[in-house]
Amino acid sequence: MGSRLSSVARLTAAAAAAGVVAAAIALPAVGGTGAIFVSASEDLGIKPEELKEPPLAERTTLLDAKGNEIAYFWEEYRESVTLDQVADIMKTAIISIEDFRFYEHGAIDIEGTIRALAKNATSGGIAQGGSSITQQYVKQVLLNSAETDEAKAAALEASYARKLKELRYAMAVEEKYTKDQILEKYLNIAYFGAGANGVEAAAKRFFGVSASDLTLAQAATLAGAVQDPNATDPNIGKAQQKRLLSRRNVVLDRMAELKKITPEEAAAAKAQKLGFKNTPIPGGCAESKYPYFCMYVRNEVLRNPVFGKKAKTRSAFLNRGGLTIQTTLDPKMQRAAERAIKKHVFASDDPVASEALIQPGTGAIKAMAASRKYGTNKRKKEMSYNVVADAAHGGGTGFQAGSTFKTFTLVTALKKGMKLNEGFSVSGGYRAPYYSSFKNCKGENIGDPSHTVTNDEGGGGFMTLQTGTWKSVNTFFVQLEQKVGLCDTIKTAKDLGIKRSDGLPLTEYETFTLGTNEMDPVTVANAYATLGARGKRCTPMVITKITDRYGKVKNYKPDCEQKLDPEVADAAASILSGVFTKGTMSGVGGIGRPAAGKTGTTDNQATAWFAGFTPDLAGAVSIGDPDGAQDHKLNGVTIGGRYHANVFGATIPGPIWKDTMLAALKGTPATAFTPVNTERFGGCGSGCAPRRETPDEDDDVTDGDEDYTGVDTGLGGE
């Protein structure tokens, strides 16, 4: 007892010499059982103060639908582990160099503090810290909790006031946790340099091993790094590596001095090279195998209020939350999309192809792929944005969707009661007869009698909903849009989930049905998935389950709504099925199971599309030049090693879609479309074809050519 009291006396004297009596007598003389507090501490009101310990920033792990890790998000690279997952030699090394009496003292090491205060008294400042591991843990908590530069500066301030505050917190920590718990917390919060927070991240970053597998030399290196991790950061340069090596040897000498290792073991470890492997930090979307899908997930979390009311909250949730996010990505379907694109379009080509696959009835995005890699290297033609998605999910302005939009006019006609074989005669060119022949959704007259819509193939004659769709006849669809109403057509498109890729309102011109609005594959695929689900539209989803750091699970269900009469969707699917057998995709062919779809090519082949669906899977493929589709049209181009005079929807997008579906749905039982209600949609109503001496059931359908020519009404392309 006497020696303990004399230690306190010496501490008080040293503190008085430094001019800070409170710091000296504020502490328990020793820790553990039988702790003795200086009575004066009660007079000064120095008591333990509860430390707020916010959860540490933990990396979030992204999983595909099969449970495979595909990406990570983090603000601080950290992987927390339990103490039994840390090699014993690592525990010994850190205690030896930082606080060798850790298991013997309380919140403060009296002897260490006496030495520090005595040194400080003669130096005129804080030359020595004398901090215990508990105090260091407190300091790290305060630093990690600081949200402003001022708060961080206060956490690092070289003052006795700050030190006294830390000690109050340390006293409370010692009362709350066991020594093993404190050591575990310290090892997980400590910064080791090279961007590694916590011993597990440091072990992987420095040496490519887990903390449980650290050797003596490696453990001593990490133990030496915590004192000044910036000065000994081996990732910075050779000077820092040299300092770290020297610091490692200091740790080894200290371990030998304390007889934790033998002199021979210390010498053998000191003879080893530093061994810094600079293992890359497992990163975000740029390092992911599936960068475009990863970007979609990241932006979905950061923008969706479901994951937090404020942007700051959502960011912390994703980057600090230590979450495990299960997603909808199907690795088999992803591979199918990637291989199909690679077969037809090279990464070195100027145009870029992109594809999205979506499950009808859930909105689950199963795959997102593009012909180019994601990155910022322009020389390698890498994509710096998410070409598969809209701007809200990291994408750009998108590409005009061409004749894939004719489907929305077709659906509107079916909603209004038109029959499959109902139609009217069209010519090779069409002009709005008067300004009021087309009205936008504000009721404004937007018909343009000066603009002529033409057919690339130059054909005309009597067209029905079926034959006009199969041939993709521009003049037929503009007249059909006039008949059923431009605004109603736009409302149908919106009901099916259509919105511009750039987030701006849809442009409402008479050429709406010809696809003059810029789209992204996810949006178009989802609209066609709505037809595959018999009119049930679902919000595109990428997250199915989130497990937080404590193991609490939150499941996410599809967000769906019936937006279309199922029988109307059945009739549309029936007509669009003919595109493969009697229309623009007849030269490409089907996929050996019920499927429907629509080709799309914009004015003068600026971009080309194909969108199609089965009851099990929908997909959309686009191709265009990201440097400006209108200025770099798909005419006289070499793509995928093959020269193309003109690229249409059935030239490249259609084959990509077909190859994707064949592989993606392999092994999946085919699901049939629901048959058309012939009582409702059979016959030709009031629009029967004129009698002909030699009726032609297929109406001389051709393939490949489609869409409109003429002015683009200022809507442009990419």
Shape: elongated
Tell me about the biggest sheet?
Answer: 5 strands, mixed
The strand order across the widest sheet is: 2-1-6-16-17
Strand content: 5-15%
Number of helices: 24
Cα(first) to Cα(last) distance is 83 Å
How many strand elements?
23
Q: Roughly what percent helix?
A: 25-40%
Rg, please? 35 Å
Return residue spans where pLDDT drops below 50 for at least 5 consecutive residues: 1-44, 122-129, 693-718
Overall pLDDT score = 87
Structural class: alpha+beta
Region (Disordered): 684-718
Pfam family, one: Transpeptidase
Biased composition (Acidic residues): 695-709
Domain Penicillin-binding protein transpeptidase: 357-628
Topology overview:
Elements: H1 2-18, H2 21-25, H3 40-43, E1 60-63, E2 69-73, E3 77-78, H4 88-98, H5 110-123, H6 133-145, H7 149-156, H8 160-176, H9 179-189, E4 191-193, E5 196-197, H10 199-207, H11 216-225, H12 238-257, H13 263-270, H14 291-303, H15 311-320, E6 324-327, H16 331-344, E7 352-358, E8 365-370, E9 399-400, H17 406-415, E10 423-426, E11 429-431, E12 452-454, E13 461-464, H18 465-471, H19 474-484, H20 486-495, E14 518-519, H21 521-532, E15 536-538, E16 543-547, E17 553-555, E18 560-562, H22 566-582, E19 596-601, E20 608-613, E21 618-624, E22 635-639, E23 642-646, H23 653-664, H24 678-681
Parallel strand pairs: 1-6, 3-5
Antiparallel strand pairs: 1-2, 4-5, 6-16, 7-8, 7-21, 9-14, 10-13, 11-12, 15-18, 16-17, 19-20, 20-21, 22-23
Describe the structure.
With 718 residues, this protein is of the alpha+beta class. The strands form eight sheets. A five-stranded mixed sheet has the order 2-1-6-16-17. The chain has 24 helices and 23 strands. Residues 1-44, 122-129 and 693-718 have low confidence and may be disordered. Helix content is 37%, strand content 13%. Helix 6 (133-145) packs across helix 8, helix 6 (133-145) crosses helix 9 (179-189) and helix 12 (238-257) runs antiparallel to helix 13 (263-270). A hairpin with a 5-residue loop joins strand 16 and strand 17.
